[in-house]
Design a protein that fits this description.
- By secondary structure, the chain is of the alpha+beta class.
- It has one domain: Alpha-D-Glucose-1,6-Bisphosphate, Chain A, domain 4.
- It is 32% helix and 36% strand.
- It has a 7-stranded antiparallel beta sheet with strand order 1-7-6-5-4-3-2.
- A hairpin with a 6-residue loop joins strand 3 and strand 4.
- The chain is elongated and about 70 Å long.
Amino acid sequence: MLPIILGIVAVIVVVVLILGFSRPSTFRVERSITVNVPAEMVYALLTDFRRSEAWSPWEKKDLNMKKTFSGPATGLGSTFEWEGNQNVGHGRQEIVEAVPCSKVTTRLNFYKPFKGENMAEFLFEPTNGGTLVHWVMYGPLNFIVRVLCFNMDKMIGKDFEEGLASIKVHLEK
């Protein structure tokens, strides 16, 4: 009986290792929308964390979320820390690059429910009468996440779509 149990355990270990090592070690999620306003307006909104209530999909998931802002009010070095329910967790976001009307890059540190560090970018492209806004998030996937087969695109893609739609509605009104 012991050899059978050891054989089953060995098979499980091999399957876990195969799952973990066969999946990508990084992820990238991207969504885009065209907003019928100049890039200056989009840039001003996205470099001011205090205005995130107007568009962030996570603001709606915890109306009692505790928020702390530090650093400059807008732009490079501006930070936003949040602590909320199981839907939003606990984390910190800092603007690490801000190129007017072109790009906003943030570092996202997640503390709960899972620890992690990712990067997010908003990229702006002028279009006929507006701005094409790309929202991108990328980062590493640890071994456990790879074994559990988390699909980051499915996990946050809809949130990105909702956030971009809110940006459009907010800025075009």
